[in-house]
Amino acid sequence: MTGLEKDVLQNGLCEGCECTGFVAKLNYVVDATAKTATVTDASTFGAGDDLNVANIHVYDKNGKEKHGQITADAGNAVLDISSLNLSSIDILGTVISTKGCKADLGIYSIGSVALSGQLGNKNNQGVRD
User: Fold this and answer.
1) Which of the listed residues 4, 38, 45, 64 has the most CB atoms within 10 Å of its CB?
2) What is the pTM of this model?
């Protein structure tokens, strides 16, 4: 599986917050028969931190899009993707913790890669120096 990770911008996103232990992960399953995309939070957080929200976006190459949110630890979002071109969709997610740590995750061209997998980031991605 190939995926694209973005490093959290080091200035302005989480000024002064401590992100040690923050590991953003989203699992996805695309059901081509039911025409749904299920994205589940699998993130871990440092002491005293928790999931605030994960914003989920699914796009196809024709510009059509679907959006959802996860607001509970290990929760999921099930998106109806019946109007999208399933041969090539992208899933993007932004995980935001209660302490303000953020990570942008993505997997691209799912129809040609894998119908299930994980969007993940590096350990302690939001740590500030």
Assistant:
1) 45
2) 0.81
